[in-house]
Write a structure and sequence with these properties.
CATH class: Alpha Beta
Helix content: 40-55%
Strand content: 15-25%
Distance between the termini: 46 Å
Number of domains: 1
Shape: elongated
CATH architecture: 2-Layer Sandwich
Strand order of the largest sheet: 1-2-3
Length: about 100
């Protein structure tokens, strides 16, 4: 956004740099973790974690294949609906569950 005289505003330059270098990603993931905790509830959130977000898809790591199947088959649409109702969650079009290491 060039201003008069060919200079850019410092805020615009810094925002572009942060986005390009992905410095804001840990902060964004933290907001997704908080939204997931609210949608999933304490019990489920303790056995899962947000692994990433990309293009409207929120990836959740779970502790076992059985838990992954249970979430996909029985609870996925309900969890997605809860995220849609959470204004702080942003846009989530799809939930993907995968087995991974979930820290205690």
């Amino acid at each position: 956004m060039a201003r008069r005289g060919g200079t850019d505003r410092l805020g615009d330059v810094l925002a572009a740099l942060l986005q390009k270098r992905s410095y804001g990603r840990p902060l964004a993931l933290q907001s997704w973790r908080e939204a997931w905790g609210r949608a999933a509830g304490e019990r489920l959130a303790a056995r899962s974690r947000v692994a990433g977000y990309r293009d409207g898809t929120l990836t959740i790591e779970v502790t076992s294949a059985a838990q992954r199947y249970e979430l996909e088959a029985f609870h996925g649409s309900e969890l997605l609906a809860r995220l849609h109702k959470d204004a702080a969650a942003g846009v989530v079009r799809k939930l993907v569950f995968r087995v991974g290491s979930v820290p205690p």
